[in-house]
Amino acid sequence: MTRLLTFTSLAAVLLSARPLPAQQSMTAVDSAVHVLNRLAYGPLPGQANRVAQEGVWHWIDRQLQPEDIDNRILEHREHEFTVLDHSRDDLAGAFLSLQRERRERQRTMVPRGDSATRRDPGRRMSSRGRELRQLGGQVGQLVVVRASLSNRQLEEVMVDFWANHFNVYFAKGLDRVLLPHYIEETI
User: Fold this and answer.
1) Cα Rg for the chain, rounded, in angstroms?
2) Cα three-residue angle 17-21-24, rounded to 5 degrees
3) Coil vs helix vs strand at 58
């Protein structure tokens, strides 16, 4: 009986509901917002209106030719990131030597009581280790700056897609120091 009552109630609600209005076509600004949400990291203030005036298809065509897009704002800001000043080989060598130092310190662990303690006075992170940690932090910041300041939004979305697809991120081993060069040269 309850099932019949529920079905009857549902049928009454559906039959008494007004038909939905015909779907209206999207305006040029709506279309621009849609494209910027799909092919970029979302619209910046005023960007949807500019893309609507330019034409969505024209904006997409320009994004497919990223080398023709002026990106001086991003290029100027990238100079603040010192991780880009280091060569791939120097960063990899520094990271590997830091890993060797860490393994050597772990070998010098001396058991005392129930837990192991280190008797190494140089237990603190070396200045090279702090520098590499700082450079690794810059990689994460650089990703955000590129996504927000680049005029080549489709390119940045594709770089993010392929880095995610290949499971490349800066918190994974040697990727910490090689990610900027990998993105620039490979992806």
Assistant:
1) 27
2) 155
3) helix
Closest by Cα among 57, 98, 118, 90 to 180: 90
- With 0.70 as the threshold, say if the pTM is over it: no
Chain length of the chain: 187
In this structure, how many other beta carbons lie within 10 angstroms of the beta carbon of residue 143? Answer: 19
What is the mean pLDDT of each successive set of 10 residues along the chain, which is 187 residues long?
51 54 80 95 94 96 95 92 85 83 79 53 67 81 90 92 77 71 73
Report the DSSP pairing between strands 109-112 and 115-118: antiparallel
d(CA 187, CA 84): 16
Cα–Cα distance measured from residue 160 to residue 144, given in angstroms and rounded to the nearest whole number:
11
